[in-house]
Structure formats: structure tokens, C-alpha cells
């Protein structure tokens, strides 16, 4: 692709080439070893309530805590999990309890937590993601390597009870990329040192709707070129995919997007920017206004059985869970039969229609996807539930695994939805005309 990154934000060498011209190539250029997504942390003002809402809505039991009951007088943190996906919710306690001196601060299980920053963050962004955490081989090396290649530091490496290390660099807006690494013998560790297991408390009420891991975490930024150049420069991540407003076939989408991936393409970080001058305001611009700047737009959660996950989640939409965006018109599913009959059975297409699931394909596989409505008060962060079909490979030990990003990210659905809505509106029009004529 001939795109170089010198980390110079004043003259980014990054340039969009568009979906058609984009040549997928994995240079395996990571600057340090990134193993996988570790967790996603939300900052909020009351972690108990937010954690329980997400737990119920997504079928992810609370499995670890660090709060007053465990001796933490700085912040309340609750971790929920389903398969390899972990969300962490953190809220501050009163400074009159935690104070500013070093001694009480020592009780914080996340020592990078900053009370004033958390309060300012919540006031500015509402409910939002503070950190995307990746497990790396060595969080100290990752931090110093990143900073040496232009990353803005957020928190220097801290060793947690001699068993794990965390460090943070700025990603975009007020979001940080958190590095987590473990020392040896962590078999007994549920999450991070300082957290206590709550599994006994929840064993009587197991929750599991089939969500298994984080597939991708998407950010919205005002300027894509600057953000992509910055992140590429310090992580060494490569461009896994990109698309522009023109590629999508409808200017209504109002966005340009680049997906960055690590060496094994299991840590995928798409970044969007708004495109201006379209009939409707770009949804990315709306996000940036409501979020007061850049931030995490959506988290794509991979399900092992999207039909089951959707049935469970939809049951709870009206009783404390998450609601979904309106389903596409029937014309979308008429067209889907032509587009995906070789991959999905008639029954599966019927279930997609019943549950409002969208389907897209790329040159390698098929993507089933659906989006929730915004998770909180503001039209900002939402969740995508996905299942990928195809691209099964074997590793060196002969174990089968699915290639990251198989089936793409739903680019084709922009134009498919647009087309099916147009077709559907035409059917309504002709119905109206025939009714008028009949009258
Ligand atoms: Fe997505």
C-alpha cells in the first residue's frame, strides 16, 4: 500500500485509498506482542447499577469485585464476564473518604484510577468507555515502546501485588489503551490482583446468552488520518480494511472508516470519521457532539449462536435489558435469499428476519450482525452482536480456529438497507395508489 508512518501528526502520510483499491496485506508489524483483548472498562458514577444492567442485558454474570467490602476506599469496580469477554465498571467514592494522600490511594485495585479525571470524564461524556485493555507479553515494554514511538502517556507501568503489570497510553479523546501483563503463576487469578471473586454469590443464578468475546472496538474521531497515523505509529498495527463514504454506494452513511489489526488480527480497532455535506447529518458527527469529542462508538460482541443470543436479549429489552434498532423491511430478506442462499438455510434466513439480523459478506466469509439502540441517555455508545461464518483455519498444532474479521464489518449493509428501504417504500406507494384507484 506504500503508506508509511512517521508518527508526525502535522503531516500524516496516511491516505484513504477506498475499498476497491485496498489490498489486504498483513506485514505482521506489531511493535510488541499483543495477545488479545483483555477487558473494556466503563467509567460511570454508580458502578453497582450499571454493572447489573449490563449483566442482565447481555447475560454476563458479575464475577469479580473491588469495593468497600474488599477494602478499596477509592473506587467501586465490578467485572462481568461471558466466555472471554470481560467488562469492568468503575465509579469513584467520595474524596472525603479516599482523600488525596498516598496511603488510602494504595487501596485502589486499579492504581491508574484518578478520581478527578473520572468525575470530569463522566460529566463530559456520560456513560462511556474509558479504557480498551489488551493483554500483552509485557506491559512495561509495551508502554515504553509505545511512548518511544509517539504515544502520549496516560499512566506509567504499575506492578499489582507483584503478579501483574498495567500501564496506559492515550488512544483517542479521553479513551486510553491499557496494557495488561501477568507475571508467572497466575492460575489462581480470576481477573486482576486486588479483585475478589463473587462466583459463589452468583452460582445460584447463572446467566449465559452465548456471548463469547470482543470482536472489535470502534472509535469515532473528528479526523481519521491523524488518529490512524498516531495509533499505527506506536502499536505497529496494520490496516486490515478500510472504506469510504463513496464505496458504500450511498452518501447517506456519512463516514469514512479504517480498521487497524494486530499481527494475528484478533485485536481489531476500527476508527471512523464523519463525512460532511450529505443530506442528513453524519451519525459520526452527531456522536462527536453528544459525546463532547472522540470516543468509543460501539463494541462488537461475538456470539457462538446469534439466534439464541438475540432471543435471550430481546426477551429482556423491555425489562431492563437493551433495545435494538428497528428491523429492516421484508424486502431486505427477499433480497437476502438471493445473496446468501448458499451459506444460510431457509430456516436460518427466516430466523434472521424474525430477529432483525442483518447479513453481509466479504471475499472470505459471512457476517451476521445487529445493533442495539444507544446504551445510555445520549445517542453515543451502542453494542453490536455478531456471528462470523466461514474462514476456518488450522494452527501449527492442528487446532481449528476462525480467521479474525471473517465476513467483514457490515459495509455492504449500508447499501443493502438503503436499497431495501427504497424498494419497500415503493411497495407502499403502489399499495396506496391501488387503494386510491379502488376508492
Ligand atoms: Fe462493527
Automatic annotation (TrEMBL):
PROSITE patterns: VOC
CDD domains: HPPD_C_like, HPPD_N_like
Pathway as given in its UniProt record: Cofactor biosynthesis; prenylquinone biosynthesis; Amino-acid degradation; L-phenylalanine degradation; acetoacetate and fumarate from L-phenylalanine: step 3/6
Residues that hold Fe cation according to the record: 216, 298, 384
A Pfam family hit: Glyoxalase
Essential cofactor(s): Fe cation
GO MF terms, alphabetically ordered: 4-hydroxyphenylpyruvate dioxygenase activity; metal ion binding
GO biological process: L-phenylalanine catabolic process; L-tyrosine catabolic process
Entry GO CC: cytoplasm
Keywords of the record: Cytoplasm, Dioxygenase, Iron, Metal-binding, Oxidoreductase, Phenylalanine catabolism, Repeat, Tyrosine catabolism
Entry keyword annotation includes Repeat: yes
Cofactor: how and how many bound: Binds 1 Fe cation per subunit.
All copies of domain VOC, residue ranges: 36-194, 213-373
Family: Belongs to the 4HPPD family.
Name the UniProt record assigns to this protein: 4-hydroxyphenylpyruvate dioxygenase
Native source organism of the sequence: Acer saccharum
Amino acid at each position: 500500500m506504500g503508506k508509511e508512518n512517521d508518527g508526525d501528526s502535522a503531516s500524516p502520510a496516511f491516505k484513504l485509498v477506498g475499498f476497491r483499491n485496498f489490498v489486504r496485506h498483513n506485514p505482521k508489524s506489531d511493535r510488541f506482542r499483543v495477545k488479545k483483548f483483555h477487558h473494556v472498562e466503563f467509567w460511570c458514577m454508580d458502578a453497582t447499577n450499571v454493572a447489573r444492567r449490563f449483566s442482565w442485558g447481555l447475560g454476563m454474570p458479575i464475577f469479580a469485585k473491588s469495593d468497600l467490602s474488599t477494602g478499596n476506599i477509592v473506587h467501586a469496580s465490578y467485572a462481568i464476564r461471558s466466555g472471554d469477554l470481560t467488562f469492568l465498571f468503575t465509579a469513584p467514592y467520595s474524596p472525603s473518604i479516599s482523600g488525596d494522600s498516598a496511603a488510602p490511594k494504595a487501596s485502589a485495585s486499579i492504581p491508574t484510577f484518578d478520581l478527578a479525571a473520572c468525575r470530569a470524564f463522566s460529566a463530559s461524556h456520560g456513560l462511556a468507555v474509558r479504557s480498551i485493555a489488551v493483554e500483552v507479553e509485557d506491559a512495561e515494554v509495551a508502554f515504553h515502546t509505545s511512548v518511544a514511538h509517539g504515544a502520549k502517556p496516560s499512566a506509567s507501568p504499575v506492578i499489582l501485588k507483584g503478579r501483574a503489570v498495567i500501564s496506559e497510553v492515550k488512544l483517542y479523546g479521553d479513551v486510553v489503551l491499557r496494557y495488561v501483563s501477568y507475571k508467572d503463576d497466575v492460575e489462581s487469578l480470576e481477573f486482576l490482583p486486588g479483585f475478589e471473586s463473587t462466583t459463589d454469590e452468583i452460582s445460584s443464578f447463572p446467566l449465559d446468552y452465548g456471548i463469547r468475546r470482543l470482536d472489535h472496538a470502534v472509535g469515532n474521531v473528528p479526523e481519521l488520518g491523524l488518529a490512524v497515523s498516531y495509533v499505527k505509529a506506536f502499536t505497529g498495527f496494520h490496516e486490515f480494511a478500510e472504506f469510504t463514504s463513496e464505496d458504500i454506494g450511498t452518501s447517506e452513511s456519512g463516514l469514512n472508516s479504517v480498521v487497524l489489526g494486530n499481527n494475528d488480527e484478533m485485536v481489531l480497532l476500527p476508527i471512523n470519521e464523519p463525512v460532511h455535506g450529505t443530506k442528513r447529518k453524519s451519525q459520526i458527527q452527531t456522536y462527536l457532539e453528544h459525546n463532547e469529542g472522540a470516543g468509543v462508538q460501539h463494541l462488537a460482541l461475538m456470539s457462538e449462536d446469534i439466534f439464541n443470543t438475540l432471543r435471550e436479549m430481546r426477551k429482556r429489552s423491555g425489562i431492563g435489558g437493551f433495545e435494538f434498532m428497528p428491523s429492516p423491511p421484508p424486502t431486505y430478506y427477499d433480497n437476502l435469499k438471493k445473496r446468501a442462499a448458499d451459506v444460510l438455510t431457509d430456516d436460518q434466513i427466516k430466523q434472521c428476519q424474525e430477529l432483525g439480523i442483518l447479513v453481509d459478506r466479504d471475499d472470505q466469509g459471512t457476517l451476521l450482525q445487529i445493533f442495539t439502540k444507544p446504551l445510555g441517555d445520549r445517542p453515543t455508545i451502542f453494542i453490536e452482536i455478531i456471528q462470523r461464518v466461514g474462514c476456518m483455519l488450522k494452527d501449527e498444532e492442528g487446532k481449528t480456529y476462525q480467521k479474525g474479521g471473517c465476513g467483514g464489518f457490515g459495509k455492504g449493509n449500508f447499501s443493502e438497507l438503503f436499497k431495501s428501504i427504497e424498494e419497500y417504500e415503493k411497495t407502499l406507494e403502489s399499495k396506496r395508489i391501488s387503494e386510491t384507484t379502488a376508492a
